Amino acid sequence: MNLLRQHAPADHVDLPGPATEQMIAAAEKRMGIGLPQDLRAWLLQNNLDLPEEDVDDDAACCGFAGFPDEGSFFLGIRAMERLYENRSMLGGFDPPDQPENPFWRNEWIPFLSDQDGWMGKFIDVRDGRVGKWFAGEITTTGEYESLAHYFDSVAEMLTKIADGEHPVCEFAEGRLVWS
Fold it and tell me: Residues with Cβ < 8 Å from 74, sequence gap 6 or more?
């Protein structure tokens, strides 16, 4: 977030700020699952839910466009909860006949998604690893060892953008601009 604040202050100022412990506890209760500590720490600094008046009820997920990349965005607590509710299954995984290779497990908490909720990243509450899903493709688990490792990759990308070494993004007038 410091890199975003430094290089894209106009984007950074649009972000709504932190969640509260009460917001997180209420979401955990409604979802029936505890959030991993590093996800809680992220949310206590950055609850990226859009203001209620900007939420598109027709979209599966809503967030701040253009961060961390052009096609996806970090989820705030409400969006996380909504997508988790949409993905979770009564038996704990989907499809029910593939427990060892599911498309989705109830132990996965989405934290990044596209607007349709068809692809994104999740954190596995069992071991803290980060994986990714894409509708119609095999879900990848353990893409990153932890949420911290994933955020290191985002910081690396922002540094490349700042250095002019990213092929499809630059900082202009205090914002991330994707080509």
Answer: 46, 48, 63, 64, 67, 68, 111, 112
Sheet with 108-113, strands from edge to edge, namely 73-74, 108-113, 119-124, 130-134, 140-144
Q: How far is CA 173 from CA 7, 8, 69, in A?
A: 9, 8, 17
Which residue, among 82, 77, 84, has the nearest Cα to 26 in the 3D structure?
77
Phi, psi of 21 (to 5 degrees): -60, -40
What whole-number distance in Å separates Cα of residue 103 and Cα of residue 66? Answer: 26
CA-based R_g, the chain, Å:
16
**Alpha carbon of 131 to those of 48, 58, 134, 162: distances in Å?**
20, 26, 10, 27
For residue 21, give the nearest of 61, 77, 81, 62 by alpha carbon: 77
Within a 13 Å sphere around the CA of 127, how many CA atoms are in the beta-carbon half? Answer: 8
d(C-alpha 10, C-alpha 31), whole Å: 33
Supply the pLDDT for residue 61: 67
Tokens 């699952």 sit at which residue? 33
* Residue 152 dihedral angles phi and psi, to the nearest 5°: -60, -40
Kindly report, residue by residue over 147-159, the tens digit of the pLDDT: 999 999 999 999 9
